[in-house]
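Project outcomes to date are best conveyed with an example. Our students and postdoctoral researchers have been running inverse folding experiments weekly, and each run begins with a structure described purely in tokens. The record below, which covers 135 residues, was selected by the lab manager from last quarter's runs and is presented without edits.
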């Protein structure tokens, strides 16, 4: 308040030099105070805290979290090779669509390797065990 008898409300929002709301927040003057309405991605009394959806590490399997600007609580996970899903929670089964011929068995590669290998029966070779070595 200001004035000789402190009866005039100060409009804190009118101060363009020391505008109370940060990060493009909108100031609303109240009697004896003010409040801020924050823009997307910010919160706090003065909109001083950035909302970071990646702070909780939602992505799995060592994926990278990417904060999507201009959307509330929006993020994407950039999966490491061999993983898929919104959170990179699913290991890709490369053998699902692979045929290993002549009784060969498909095995997904482990560790940092991505892909599959056909384990051929004796007498067969090739990426899919398609070569009969007995002929």
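After processing, the design step wrote out the following sequence:
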């Amino acid at each position: 308040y200001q004035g000789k008898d402190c009866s005039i409300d100060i409009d804190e929002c009118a101060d363009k030099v020391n505008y109370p709301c940060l990060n493009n927040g909108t100031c609303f003057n109240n009697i004896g105070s003010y409040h801020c309405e924050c823009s997307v991605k910010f919160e706090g009394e003065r909109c001083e805290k950035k909302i970071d959806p990646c702070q909780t590490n939602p992505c799995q399997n060592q994926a990278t979290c990417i904060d999507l600007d201009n959307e509330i609580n929006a993020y994407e996970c950039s999966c490491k090779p061999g993983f898929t899903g919104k959170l990179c929670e699913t290991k890709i089964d490369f053998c699902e669509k692979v045929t290993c011929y002549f009784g060969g068995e498909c095995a997904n590669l482990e560790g940092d390797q991505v892909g599959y290998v056909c384990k051929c029966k004796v007498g067969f070779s090739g990426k899919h065990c398609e070569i009969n070595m007995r002929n």
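The chain is about 0% helix and 30% strand. Residues 52-91 form a domain with the Laminin fold (CATH 2.10.25.10). The training component of this project remains on track.
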